[in-house]
Design a protein that fits this description.
Helix 1 crosses helix 3 and helix 2 crosses helix 3. Helix content is 48%, strand content 19%. It contains 15 helices and ten strands. It is an alpha/beta fold. Strand 1 and strand 2 form a beta hairpin. The chain has an eight-stranded mixed β-barrel with strand order 1-2-4-5-6-7-8-9, surrounded by four helices. The N terminus and C terminus are likely disordered. Bound molecules: ligand C2E and magnesium ion (3 copies). This is Putative diguanylate cyclase/phosphodiesterase.
Length: 292
């Protein structure tokens, strides 16, 4: 998994340096410079209503457009940014840029959400709610449009203070998603009470070629039901083929995201997904849309 690749990434990033510490300092310095030079870009992956196929939102995913090494995935630099404190300014840039793009797409008027990943380091900052509010005001978008994605581990580090922070954020009107659900610890007790709006089921729960018995499907179904029991919007991540999509439809999972539906795309390409938004009539009565 990308999140555990941090150390290797540092080693391979400047292979030949020999010294891991030197390589890491190199990477930190380059990250700092990259932020100044505007080398970070956001790609956007569509999220789709399973029943109607309509576009329901986008997730913003950061990439580093390195002048020498080309496009670098977040799993390779986010851990270093977190350890070095750079995640603060980087995370704020991501937030502002995603809100700006949401505005450009008139996402709030169209009823689309813009999802933004939030690092535990950002989330634990005292002024995070203020930064979120400033990004919303600067972009001029309605708070309901913004979905902040957190992982279970972010919340579990200190459930009481995390709950306070979540309440502060929701008081602004923004929404909260629990990302990669099912991969952390003690997920079930957490899910019962924390104030969130969306549950993103980790892609590891979608059946793969090795899942020959029914247990994979049972687990997926159970997670969808758990989310729905709490009246959360449930999103299945990692939808990679028509079988996944059919399974989700059959289970009544409302929302899907994955390479089969759309890859993460640069903004100008992701714009091309906008016509896939539901027409107002179809939104009110999705079964009519399905029949067409
Ligand atoms: P995530 O938030 O769970 O994002 C989903 C990841 O799964 C993305 O990888 C996406 O490209 C990938 N993905 C989407 N559909 C499929 C699929 O059908 N199959 C497979 N195998 N993968 C799929 P990406 O962009 O490399 O991001 C990895 C992780 O890095 C994200 O996981 C998130 O935790 C983190 N990340 C990305 N952008 C940001 C950011 O702006 N801030 C922070 N703090 N973390 C970020
Ligand atoms: Mg995410
Ligand atoms: Mg995820
Ligand atoms: Mg993930």
């Amino acid at each position: 998994r990308a999140k555990h690749d941090g150390k290797n990434a540092v080693r391979t990033y400047s292979a030949g340096m020999g010294d891991e510490t030197a390589a890491r300092m190199d990477l930190e310095r380059d990250l700092r410079e990259a932020l100044r030079n505007g080398e970070f870009v956001l790609h956007y992956q569509g999220q789709f209503d399973v029943a109607s196929g309509a576009l329901s939102g986008y997730e913003a995913l950061v990439r580093w457009q390195h002048p020498v090494h080309g496009m670098i995935a977040p799993g390779r630099f986010i851990p270093v940014a977190e350890d070095s404190g750079l995640i603060g300014p980087l995370g704020t840039w991501v937030l502002r840029e995603a809100c700006r793009q949401a505005r450009a797409w008139r996402a709030d008027e169209r009823g689309l959400t813009m999802s933004v990943n939030v690092s535990p380091v950002q989330f634990d900052t005292a002024d995070f709610a203020r930064l979120v509010q400033e990004a919303l005001e600067e972009a001029g978008i309605r708070p309901e449009c913004l979905m902040l994605e957190l992982t279970e581990s972010t919340v579990l580090r200190d459930v009481a203070s995390a709950t306070q922070q979540l309440q502060r954020l929701r008081a602004l009107g923004v929404r909260i998603a629990l990302d990669d659900f099912g991969t952390g610890q003690s997920a079930l007790s957490l899910l019962r009470h924390i104030p969130i709006d969306q549950l993103k089921i980790d892609r590891s729960f979608l059946p793969g070629p090795d899942d020959t018995d029914e247990s994979a499907q049972v687990f997926l179904r159970l997670l969808v039901m758990l989310g729905q029991a709490r009246r959360l919007n449930v999103v299945a991540e990692g939808v990679e083929n028509a079988e996944h999509q059919a399974l989700l439809r059959e289970m009544g999972c409302p929302t899907a995201q994955g390479f089969y539906l759309s890859r993460p795309l640069p903004a100008h390409q992701a714009t091309a997904l906008l016509p896939q938004i539901a027409a107002p009539a179809a939104r009110a009565a999705p079964e009519l849309h399905m029949a067409s």
